[in-house]
Amino acid sequence: LQIGLYHGAHHVFDQASPLPRQQTGLGLFSACATNAPIEFAHALTPLLIDQLERSSVGRGRWCPAGEPRDPDQGLLFDTLMGDGPYARSFHQEIFDALRTALRLSAERRPQAAAAMIRLLTESELLSGHQLAAAALSACSEPLLDSALVWASDPRVRGLPSGLASGWAWGEVLAHVAAIGSRTQREASITLAMDAFGELELATLAANRAAGEGTTPSLQSEDQRGRAQEQLVALTLIERRLGEETPPTVHTRRADLE
Predict the structure, then answer these.
(1) CA-CA distance, 228 to 232, in Å (whole number)?
(2) Contact criterion met (CB below 8 Å) for 200 and 206
(3) Contact 177, 188 (CB under 8 A)
(4) Among 92, 75, 110, residue whose Cα is nearest residue 22
(5) Do residues 11 and 80 touch, judged by C-beta distance below 8 A?
(6) With contact defined as beta carbons under 8 Å apart, do 138 and 110 qualify?
(7) Cα dist from 157 to 133, 151, 183, 256, whole Å
(8) Closest to 192 measured CA to CA, from 224, 220, 152
(9) CB of 232 closer than 8 Å to CB of 164
(10) In this structure, how many other beta carbons lie within 10 angstroms of the beta carbon of residue 110?
């Protein structure tokens, strides 16, 4: 990091940094994350947050579907993780290894993982919240209430995983519904059912049937985006619960398709 900064790098993965641009292909970081997840996550989480914040300067913000595009609201994009999991870059290799470490830590040693997850959820970083969602979608029972608190934050409703709208948020809700208490399951399902407000499903269906032309209205696009986010969340819940899925979830999911 210091060498990179000396050479004018804005962050440790910048072009001016001495670190490689492509993945190493050796699996060293993945092995470290798997064999010593707590230690790996403790060492890397603060560093990666700092680097993500450095790389987010001047970038736009992600907002849930249907929310106003306010430049001061929403979660910050960054230049490091914006290429997605198929970029095969060195920083994506680090990101993937940290994701693995956080998931294993949240499952096996939730108390130790809590502080690192809190660092991520208290940030304004889209990638930071996606890392937190990865951990909370695999956590053991002591972190389930924290998972619900996170999922209740309006900023993360419908949080994507890569290009999959609603996936990161939906996985957390599905996990809580699958392993939580009855109260936690009900809270998770209620969030998935009620967080999107009123959706005009009949109008959306009619617009799809009519083709709606080539320039759909902004209101229609917002409705469609929210419907897609809810469909993903309910589908993930349904997959995890199987025969225990409440009929209201089955019905709503079918209406959204």
Answers:
(1) 6
(2) no
(3) yes
(4) 92
(5) yes
(6) no
(7) 11, 7, 20, 17
(8) 152
(9) yes
(10) 18
- pLDDT value of position 8: 57
Task: Please tell me the distance from the alpha carbon of residue 83 to that of residue 79, in angstroms, as a whole number.
Answer: 8
From CA 109, how far away is CA 117, in angstroms rounded?
A: 12
Positive or negative CA dihedral for 92, 93, 95, 96?
positive
Residue 37 CA to residue 43 CA, distance in Å, equals: 10
The number of C-alpha atoms within 13 Å of 22 and in the hemisphere containing its C-beta is 3
Average pLDDT, the chain: 83
The one-letter code for the residue type at 255 is: D
- List 164's β-bridge partners, or say none: 161
* Tokens read off for 257: 């398709």
pLDDT single digits (tens) 130-185: 999 999 999 999 999 999 999 999 999 999 988 788 999 999 999 999 999 999 99
* In contact, 79 and 55? CB cutoff 8 Å: yes
**Are residues 98 and 48 in contact, defined by beta-carbon separation less than 8 angstroms?**
yes
- The tokens for 166 are 């609603």
DSSP SS3 for 208:
helix
Angle between helices 37-55 and 110-121 in degrees, nearest 10: 0
Q: Read off the pLDDT of each residue in 4-11 and give the average, rounded to a whole number.
A: 57
The candidate with the shortest Cα–Cα distance to 65, out of 155, 136, 129, 137, is 155
Q: Indicate the DSSP class of residue 228.
A: H
Assess contact for 38 and 105: CB atoms under 8 A. yes
**Residue 25: which of 96, 100, 75, 79 has the closest Cα?**
96
What is the DSSP-derived secondary structure letter of residue 223?
Answer: H
